[in-house]
């Protein structure tokens, strides 16, 4: 499972562009490099957010889907990356970084806080009577 699919990529960028970027064998079809790039982008997202959210993210927020598409598109441009593609990649990575820092939240399941076994081992303090209360200074 990846956060975005080939269909998501086609919907965003068109089949023609994806064929141009992935058809290494001149079949006129989208090549397997797309699936590899999608998986790579998915792992980038997981690597950044795993400390805050349970991965894989469920449900997958639309924003994450867009980030994966933009990161994947950037990865598919091997030689010359168009300015818009680079700009969208940087914006996606900035968003992912904001999530990792806790500056942005996603609508999905978070990581449960681990129980601290030492939290039950609290010291207790029994208050002894004051020596001041027993002498001429006692109130």
UniProtKB/TrEMBL annotation:
Pfam families for this protein: Phage_Mu_Gp36
Superkingdom of the source species: Bacteria
Organism: Magnetospirillum fulvum MGU-K5
InterPro entries, per database record: Phage_Mu_GpJ (IPR009752)
Name of the protein: Mu-like prophage protein gp36
Species lineage: Bacteria, Pseudomonadati, Pseudomonadota, Alphaproteobacteria, Rhodospirillales
């Amino acid at each position: 499972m990846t956060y975005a699919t080939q269909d998501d990529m086609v919907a965003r960028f068109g089949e023609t562009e994806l064929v141009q970027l992935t058809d290494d064998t001149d079949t006129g079809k989208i090549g397997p490099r797309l699936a590899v790039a999608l998986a790579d982008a998915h792992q980038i997202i997981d690597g950044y957010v795993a400390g805050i959210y349970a991965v894989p993210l469920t449900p997958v927020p639309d924003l994450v889907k867009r980030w994966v598409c933009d990161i994947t598109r950037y990865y598919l441009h091997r030689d010359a990356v168009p300015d818009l593609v680079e700009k969208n990649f940087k914006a996606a990575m900035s968003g992912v970084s904001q999530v990792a820092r806790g500056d942005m939240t996603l609508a999905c399941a978070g990581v449960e806080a681990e129980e601290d076994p030492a939290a039950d081992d609290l010291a207790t303090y029994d208050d002894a009577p004051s020596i001041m209360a027993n002498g001429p200074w006692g109130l």
